[in-house]
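Recap from last week: sequence in, structure out.
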Amino acid sequence: MHDLFTTDSFQSLLTELSDMNLKDAVDSWPTEQLAAMTQASVMSWDLPCEWGGLDLAPVDQLEGLRLLSSACLTSTFVLTQRSAAGRRIATSANTVVKQDLLPRLLSGEIFATVGISHLTTSGQHLKTPLVQVGLNENGFVLNGTVPWATGAAMADYLITGGTLSDNRQILVALPTNRAGVDVQQPAKLMALNASQTGAVSLNNVAVSTDEVLHGPVEGVMQHGTGGGAGSLGTSALAIGATAGTLRRLAEEAKRREDLHQFLQPLQAECDQLTSDLRLAALGSDPAGQSAAEHLRRKANSLVLRSAQSWLAATKGAGYVAGHPAERAVRESMFF
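Predicted structure tokens:
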């Protein structure tokens, strides 16, 4: 574990996030949580040292995400989207954009998010790309819909892209106040509503070549991924959410000895997955990508079973809307 995570300031951050997670309305944007993360230098974890970042190794980034999500899953999920935006900017050859945006991202002056699922999964089966890119005298014009963007209404910049007629793609740093950018009302989700995730419509949005981060190139999402948490990030969040749930179940078990028979095997499984996550991040598992996929399946299963066990332990009280156990069950469905 990195020394950073044992400091009093980071432990205080975890306590603060946990307290705010229990008290805050579940639909409110996590302004205070993100500010606390900025104050604790969390926003610098995965950005290059030359821009003021800490450039933590992926294994340490994943450990940080695991710890944060054990305190507050929603704000940690929002963090991952902001981090993804930062990495796409940091790994671009566009020095002008990097000089403009990265220092302000680190300080918390601005917030950036990503809307890139349509370039990887969402809508890939459609004949017509969800976001189409045309040419104009100064660069490009975007038309279409970005189906999923977390915190778009709160973001100053949206890292998104689209597809040209020759199937090449671009990724751009798009100011959300640009003419033609229409951020839709966030979708009403089963959980994590505070992430304010929803669609963004793009209507003849002009983008200059100076705002392009990557491309035009085929498979733009394969370029500039950087050294972030990558495909293991979701597993880190699931394992962290499990740890938070089991911590609360353990509090219940202090009053009820009968719960230990359920808690102990779940805790042992969580500890094992934490170790497996570290090995996967270090590249120590010879199975490689298949091991990462296996880890994700196990983490997804465990977070569901742990939340359901906590719900069962509440003997009916947790079935009432607003109870932390009921919320944990809904949040576990995210995985």
